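Protocol step 4 of 6.
Sequence for Cytochrome b-c1 complex subunit 2, mitochondrial (Chaetomium strumarium) entered exactly as in the expression construct, tag removed. Do not edit the line below.
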Amino acid sequence: MICRPALTRGSQLALRRQGAAKLAQRGFAAVASPTASYEPTTIAGVKVASRDDNGPTTRLAIVAKAGTRYEPAPGLTVGLEEYAFKNTEKRSALRITRESELLGGQLSAYHTREALVLQANFLREDLPYFTELLAEVLSQTRYTTHEYHEEVQQVIQLKQAKVDAAAVALDAAHSAAFHTGLGEPLYPTPNTPISSYLNEHAVAAFAEAAYTKNTIAVIADGASQTGLSKWIEPFFKTVPAQSSTPLTTAASKYHGGEQRIPKIGGNAMVIAFPGAALGANQPEISVLVGLLGGESGIKWSPGFSLLSNATSASPGATAKAANFAYSDAGLLAIQIKGAAPAVRKVAEEAVKSLKSVAEGGVSQETLAKAIAKAKFNLLSASEVTGTGMVHAGANLIHGGQPLQVAETVKALEGVTGDKLKAAAKTLLEGKASVAAVGDLHVLPFAEDLGLKV
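Step 5 output, structure tokens:
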């Protein structure tokens, strides 16, 4: 049942108007400043992190230790993702859809290499209903045969067909870097024999191991700890404390290497190096990502970043840098896609740019811009992309603490040109992980770029 107080529609509208009037009376100067960092706690055995800016909407997410790194067989993570918000012991999928739409809520499920995320966005006063729903998805989902064959299997096949050259290259770079664990592809390729491993029974067994109090974290953006405590305690009683068959994986080890995959219909390259793990004190990596950049944030201008300038002479090609942070490892990746000759040229320019940083060729003005970009990326992570919620949850389920934004910003401001130079030099002196996908007759080898693998 919907846990909103049993009021008439007119009464509910009246209360909402009163709330809106109170917000309007506060005026612009009285707008509450948002809390940047998530505050961790434990409620009824469940790891919880929240922050509250007293806004009208809430984002609530379950971050489960069920990413592709932990799946015992290919396809189980995406199978579990597709079963989310379908039939449960209490509600049909149709009822879940109708109730959520009636309350104006949004439901989504997605996964990373380390986590499966079940998320609900809704009006603040509907916290009880969506807390109950998420707990119900964890402990009472029905993994039915007909849904697997009629829906889950079909969606997985559609997603496999949409895997483009850029995604294949990023998976290949992870495979070269870590082999197993983090090296598993984010989505199984069309050539992966998942039918040998994947069915409704295997997904149900994976859910039993992944959906426990030991392997999940509840992350709330726009809810108080008091409100969460009131509803998590009763609704999460049905979630088991632990599984009889816990998920395990070996510690990540960086290897480096090269993969080349022929593909028709797209060209992409990924040049990657060891990056910063979650919670690691390596602010220079974040600043280096800001310096490398990619697409300009200013219209009609290539911007200051090294990669945006590298692509300016190769129309149609795009390049971007990112640090993929995991619980015990990180991967700093330069991702390039476009026509094969353009990808080759941009790859060569990208490595030259990185070498120029290692030789100390970064001015104070450019360094200041890179630091400012790194700060923006950090502070906008939750508001724009939602990655802050995922990182907070991933830290908790792996025994760490959510990112402390104020401390991290201060560390970014302390990055100097010498630190950036040393970081770039260390990357180039070590082994790279290089993946080329597409027209291999044109795309360069790592050796052609002057990289060690």
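Step 6, annotate. The radius of gyration is 23 Å.
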